[in-house]
Amino acid sequence: MFESVAPLIAERAELQEQLGDPALHGDQVRAKRVNRRYAELSRIVAAYDAWQQASDDLVAAREFASEDASIAAEIPGLEASIDEHADTLRRLLIPRDENDSRDVIMEIKMGEGGEESALFAGDLLRMYLRYAESKGWRTEIIEQTSSDLGGVKDVQLAIKGNSSDPADGVWAHLKYEGGVHRVQRVPVTETQGRIHTSAAGVLVFPEVDAPEEIQIDPNDLRIDVFRSSGPGGQSVNTTDSAVRITHIPTGIVVSMQNEKSQLQNREAGMRVLRARILAKQQEEADAESSAMRKSQIRTVDRSERIRTYNFPENRIADHRTGYKAYNLDQVLDGALEPVVRSCIEADEAERLAAVGR
Question: Rounded to whole angstroms, how far apart are CA atoms 56 and 138?
């Protein structure tokens, strides 16, 4: 049983040697890749050791059970422990998403519902900022366009983790957030107290570790500059500092205007562009291997929702996993972990079933 662990133990030993080589750390991309794989294999080896130790303890207990009643009484607990360790190990042996350890760039966009949708997008931004804070992750708002009433029309947010372990990765947790989020509440603009339904869209991209990881030919870029604008379209800058970058081969367009200098906006735009290209490459690879998962919905049509936030009932419901709770106020304050965990567990169960087929 678990014969597949032996080569993984050998691979971990090889990676440990590489990590001791100073030359490795001169290559940032390769060093991160080795660290991630080492952390992933370390969890597997630890789980295997725990299972092996429990198995050895059971053999010894059975050997001495006839001589000592107290040892015999431990056998059921040891058998249960072996099953528990075996289940943990089986889950760890499921092939992981190779991007799980990566940081992410998240985009939140207003959708149907006008100003109310923009206000809800602002609520989602605050929720993710608070959630990241609870995990000890660092956040950076790369670009944000506000609405007239202080909502968010569009925001791009970088979230950086604090662990090389894929299971603790930012992408491992937030990749399930991509899709349409629907809100039901009485808008601040509603004069008759009626409940309205609107939507905001969330996109999540794994962030590129270093610029050289994604090679972009400068000849494949069209870069336009223009003046920054604020709510209502009014000009907020007297110079052409805003930048729009179009990657011609893929048609991906990124616009940046938060920074005061054209150079800073261009650097920020290239950062987001690389993340989008990486995500597109991964989607194409998944499609070719017939393993593509439509985890993110790129339209902001409220009929294609993944989650509903019902304010009158203080209820949050994830329509993919069936998760439902009546603590919406706490979730919007950053207590998102149970919702995320329901997605992780559903995904693990699906992959575990696929391995068994």
Answer: 43
Contact assessment for residue 101 and residue 169, using Cβ atoms and an 8 Å cutoff:
yes
Task: Give the integer Cα–Cα distance in Å for 61 and 166.
Answer: 36
In angstroms, the CA 209 to CA 30 distance is 10
Name the E strands within 132-195. Answer: 138-146, 152-160, 179-185
Predicted TM-score (pTM) above 0.70: yes
Determine the Cα–Cα distance for residues 181 and 338; give it in Å rounded to an integer.
17
Average pLDDT over residues 318-343: 96
Adjacent-strand bridge partners of 272: none
Q: Contact 126/332 with Cβ under 8 angstroms?
A: yes
Residue 64: C-alpha distances to residues 55, 69, 71, 82 (Å): 15, 9, 7, 18
- Beta-strand pair 252-256/242-247: antiparallel
Q: Is the dihedral of CA 281, 282, 285, 291 positive or negative?
A: negative
Residue 136 CB neighbour total at 10 angstroms: 10
Take residue 106 and report the two structure tokens written for it.
């998240």
pLDDT digits (tens, 9 = 90+) for 78-92: 999 999 999 889 888
Q: Name 245's bridge partners.
A: 223, 254
Q: Give the DSSP letter of residue 97.
A: P
- Please give the biggest Cα pair distance in the chain: 90
**Cα–Cα dist 232/146, whole Å:** 9
* Rounded CA separation 167/173 (Å): 8
CA–CA separation, 210 vs 145, rounded Å? Answer: 27
CB 36 within 8 A of CB 81: no
> If you search the block for the tokens 């290559």, which residue do you land on?
27
Q: How confident is the model at residue 202 (pLDDT cuts 50, 70, 90)?
A: very high
Measured distance CA(293)–CA(284) in Å, rounded: 11
Residues 219-237, mean pLDDT to the nearest whole number: 72
Of 63, 119, 127, give the one whose Cα is nearest residue 331: 127
Return the closest-CA partner of residue 184 out of 196, 171, 167, 199. Answer: 196
CA–CA distance, 15 with 24 (Å, rounded to integer) = 11
Mean pLDDT of the chain: 87
CB 162 within 8 A of CB 169: no
